[in-house]
């Protein structure tokens, strides 16, 4: 454990002139709280406040960024996943050993950076993991995880999180969110997010069953298309009543389309019968994304769109280990034509906020910055998933800022289920923003005074405003 | 007005070694005149030499880069556009106040840079606009615009413009160009550019009427396809006789196609009847782009192609405020297959110059540099529109130079209707070119001596050669 | 000849902090041998060890990177190509003069860099070529090429090449490879590579004839689809027996598809009859690429895929001067969907190595890094062809490393037929890798100790492992 985990100037530019400015910008926001308006932490973890399980279950198995790269190196998923139900699996210590052995794979990756930050600042480790140190670190972490100071609520406070949004099934009771909101001893805000993909994607194997449950949960008598729409509206209202500020859409493509009610009804009935063409599926899904926009205009939920991932690319791994096991692979998307039907009708609608994300960097300068630079409703989503990394974030900034400025950015989102990585992710984002702004200042493109204002807007004011926090 | 507008080292690299070289390169071209072979200034403005109207009408409303970002911040177009005809609108001072209030939106954008340069070097302002200073600046600028020194011809001289190309309708009489050419007191060159889009795009609502006017203006007896082609050739000749050096094509895609004369005739007649399929429209337009290439080979006009913009993306804004109001949005294009029919026949034709532009950066390294690196006719157009900005220009240079070198570049174009921004735009381009070359020198990839030669070629020799000035 | 050819710090970063680190990384690998697992040198050149012909035939005419840019400047191919058969052509000294005159065109290009390195370090020239120095340099080089020290085998040794893979027709006898392997006086390894494109691409004009020859060479009695597959398997075995470690596939697209044997048989027979649709051609080629993967799983040959080039874009040049004359132009590709059928079945197959290349940079971050970051079989191919240049390599590193780390890289390939440029190309790659790593170290993202390990892995360990050397 000879190498240190982190350096105070990590991710800052090498050029001394820029580094000085970047340090100053970073310092200026160090006390601002974490706002996390989109992520995947389970609200029950905070509500129940149980100790985290062992180090592998906390830090390795659920993190598909981490699992995927170890898998690529030749370790089967069965040695990285705990056994459950009928699937093969491994015990926690073995998984941890695989992870420590694989440590060098993460050099230069975003995951490597987040892990080092967590290890040093959350868990107080002193050196890097290795085959030799694996067991000792496992024991040290296991012991820490039993301490009161490492319970979720204490960490929530220590991390200086003000708002944490979760991502939830439309039929979730939101009881954990309710419990937290009503608990006078808990001072953070844990907000649900409405995520209706499984109720809109008619090719999903359980769509029909999902819709039955949806109609039933919403108490709809009309079980046709109209009832379906009303049920979605009703569940959105339920989410809003429990603090939700946004609805999230993990679609294949950002296609939108306004069908007539009769055509929508026809496709809805086809979908329930299970017999539809690919074109009909595409049309219905595009129509439903349009409908979600229409509902957002009416009920005020911020609409976020996350398209362009080929989910579960490797069928055998999906069958053996389920979804989110590291083989969702991006593909090319376009926004200009596909999002247009929605923007035609709602692009200038009052208080409509539409945050667009992409895994395809080519749309940053070509489509997203031009769209966000005209439509008052459109905001630039933070670099997402594979692009949530220092160089990719710099490319994003370089690609969008010259067209859309800084004001059209919706702020960083961590998008993570790895609770303990949240501070590291926000810290990385702040360091990258400070570095970009430092270059703008050093190249005399933005004044140092304005850079400080922009830094604060980026970290604090913009996400509050765009996500209506 | 505490912050200064510009810094002598703006847009130059932070690294001290590179900055020294960049300064020296920039200094070496400071007396070279502005060559502007593609833009949208109205020749009548120079010919008539009237005082410019008020500051808002000069600097805000006609600049869709500026209007769009203020609109995105939530200001309706009606508060940014002067009333005219039946449309809503605002008075100049109100528009100016919106602009000054919106000033911080432009930090980090290309527009912000150009505005600061103009304010300091054209108008001699001392600080940045703000809500507080809006009226005072408005009054100061209004007074200046009445001075003789701020008439277009004096500015033309002060800006050290040698050549300014306009963009004109094929039926334009070019009387302003003629007047300027014949005026012994005016020493610049103001050249027309032939832009026949509205006569080639058969889906344009007024195409049929345009063609009638075209045939009539060219005195064509034959009013069929052959007459149409001859009329276009005839108008090109008229432009050449009035000093034109290029023909510009703002097409949806760069598709080209050589139809037989009988097939072209059939589609032309279909177009006139108003009944054609999308495929027939695409075929005819691709054929006409090919024909424009053929004519350029014959008459020597440089052919410039500007594809890939979805014009008037937001229909309600278009209906209320017309075109060029900030919602033209780029989309993906390809050149390799689409431009091939034209290059098959004319790619090595003597003295044929074809300058290719794109809003889709992905084609820079993938298609444009390889095409320009083989075909003697093909030149790289400057980074255009949303890409005419410091970082985007650096990306362009990085993407094309390693394949195509510096010799295949056609030089900077400002593409602007904002006359007073012309020096700022050329200055920005020179600073970026100097910065890129400074990096090449500092990394020992180009000698400092050659960098000076390349700098001069880029700013002066190349545009003269490629645009046949 | 006043300008010097190269600088010791060429291609290293300007920032002094980074440069120091980069120098140290570069120094640490300076004695490691060249491993060239993919290239186009003719094995007979090494086997026969004849003197190279004149300077133009060695350095100009066969290098389509060089020829293309001179051609773009207006020099016809007939003045850059030696006469042969019925084609027009020029004598060597004239070609050399054209090249020297064109020297400034190569400033800033990858070719320019390689040429300068070769001239200084292989041939010991003292200054840059020019019109004035052309004849003197020609004479100096001609004389050197007659010396024993400039014979291929001595250069092979001086270049410190350990492994050089060639690219060969499946029916090649591999006699030169055999001769070299059996020669006790030759200590390098010259390995054949199986490249079956002309036997898989059924639209190739000589496909039918090629298949006849293939069946005959493999001694197949069954001359149907099964025999065809067996013949390919048999020739692969022949290559393996002669030292081959990989099979290379220069396909239009990376589409893969698993047809049933009966469907494959049907398409094979259609292909032989010469009547098939485009869709049938695409299906058969995609099926055959899948079959090549299946064979690689079985016989262990590393599978490399080079898609996305529109070959011989300018038909008239192709007809007059043949292929590889500088007008192969890239186009957009996608891997996520197209490579999936292959990865479904073989993505986790034991010891299957699949190295994916692209000329379309957009797939680096979007598709290739995510694929290589999950599938143990998938490795990132080095930036290829137009992308084998310093800035493009930096973009590659930036695009892939944050997702896939350093371990999924297959190492540099020079892909060249220009034997004397091999050291320059590997040196350039090492300098770029050192520069990227130096930035990682300077930004405290990778420790200096680990950077040294990664440098060695990149240059030596990874290519040995991935290409099974």
Can you tell me the CATH superfamily of the largest domain in chain A? Metal-dependent hydrolases
Q: In the CATH hierarchy, what is the architecture of the largest domain in chain A at level 2?
A: Alpha-Beta Barrel
The oligomeric status of these chains comes to homotrimer
Number of helical elements of chain A: 20
Give a written overview of the molecule.
The structure is a homotrimer of 469-residue chains. In chain A, helix 11 (207-217) crosses helix 12. Chain A is globular and about 65 Å long. In chain A, 57% of the residues are buried. In chain A, the strands form 3 sheets. Chain A has a 4-stranded parallel beta sheet with strand order 4-5-8-9, covered by helices on one side. In chain A, strands 1-2-3 form a 3-stranded parallel beta sheet. Chain A has a two-stranded antiparallel ribbon with strand order 6-7. Chain A folds into 2 domains: 16-51 and 149-466, Metal-dependent hydrolases (TIM Barrel, Alpha-Beta Barrel); 52-148, uronate isomerase, domain 2, chain A (Orthogonal Bundle), CATH 1.10.2020.10. Chain A contains 20 helices and 9 strands. The first copy, chain A, has helices at residues 16-28, 43-48, 55-59, 64-72, 92-101, 110-122, 134-146, 152-158, 175-182, 197-200, 207-217, 225-241, 261-273, 278-299, 315-321, 340-346, 362-372, 390-404, 422-442, 448-466; strands spanning 34-36, 161-165, 189-191, 246-249, 302-305, 309-310, 329-330, 354-356, 378-380. Helices cover 49% and strands 6% of the residues of chain A. The two termini of chain A are 43 Å apart. The first copy, chain A, is α/β, with parallel strands linked by helices. Chains B and C meet through helix 16, helix 17, helix 18, helix 19 and helix 20 of B and helix 4, helix 6, helix 15, strand 7 and helix 18 of C.
């Amino acid at each position: 454990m000879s190498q240190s985990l982190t350096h105070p100037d990590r991710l800052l530019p090498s050029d001394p002139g820029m580094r000085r400015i970047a340090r100053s910008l970073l310092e200026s926001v160090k006390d601002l709280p974490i706002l996390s308006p989109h992520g995947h932490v389970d609200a029950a973890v905070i509500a129940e406040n149980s100790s985290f399980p062992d180090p592998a279950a906390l830090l390795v198995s659920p993190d598909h960024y981490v699992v995927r790269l170890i898998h690529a190196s030749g370790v089967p998923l069965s040695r990285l996943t705990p056994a459950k139900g009928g699937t093969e699996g491994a015990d926690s210590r073995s998984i941890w050993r695989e992870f420590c052995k694989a440590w060098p794979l993460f050099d230069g990756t975003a995951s490597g950076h987040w892990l080092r930050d967590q290890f040093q600042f959350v868990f107080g480790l002193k050196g890097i993991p290795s085959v030799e140190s694996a067991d000792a670190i496992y024991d040290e972490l296991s012991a820490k995880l039993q301490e009161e100071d490492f319970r979720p609520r204490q960490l929530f406070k220590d991390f200086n999180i003000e708002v944490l949004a979760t991502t939830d099934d439309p039929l979730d009771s939101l009881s954990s969110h309710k419990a937290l909101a009503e608990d006078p001893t808990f001072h953070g805000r844990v907000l649900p997010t409405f995520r209706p993909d499984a109720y809109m994607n008619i090719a999903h194997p359980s769509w029909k069953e999902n819709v039955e449950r949806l109609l039933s949960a919403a108490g709809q008598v009309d079980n046709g298309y109209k009832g379906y729409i009303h049920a979605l509206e009703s569940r959105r209202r339920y989410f809003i009543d429990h603090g939700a500020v946004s609805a999230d859409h993990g679609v294949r493509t950002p296609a939108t389309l306004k069908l007539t009610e009769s055509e929508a009804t026809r496709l809805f009935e086809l979908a329930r019968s299970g017999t539809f063409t690919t074109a009909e599926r595409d049309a219905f899904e595009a129509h439903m994304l349009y409908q979600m926009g229409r509902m957002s205009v009416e009920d005020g939920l911020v609409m976020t769109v996350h398209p362009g991932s080929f989910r579960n690319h490797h069928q055998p791994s999906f069958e053996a280990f389920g979804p989110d096991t590291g083989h969702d692979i991006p593909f090319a998307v376009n926004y200009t034509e596909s999002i247009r039907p929605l923007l035609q009708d709602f692009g200038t609608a009052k208080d409509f906020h539409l945050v667009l994300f992409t895994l395809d960097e080519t749309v940053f300068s070509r489509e997203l910055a031009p769209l966000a630079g005209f439509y008052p409703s459109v905001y630039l989503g933070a670099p997402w998933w594979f692009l949530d990394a220092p160089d990719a974030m710099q490319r994003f900034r370089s690609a969008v800022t010259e067209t859309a400025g800084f004001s059209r950015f919706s702020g960083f989102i961590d998008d993570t289920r790895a609770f303990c990585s949240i501070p590291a992710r926000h810290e990385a984002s702040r360091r990258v923003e400070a570095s970009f702004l430092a270059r703008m200042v050093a190249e005399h493109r933005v004044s140092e005074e304005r850079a400080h204002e922009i830094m604060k807007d980026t970290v604090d004011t913009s996400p509050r405003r765009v996500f209506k926090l």
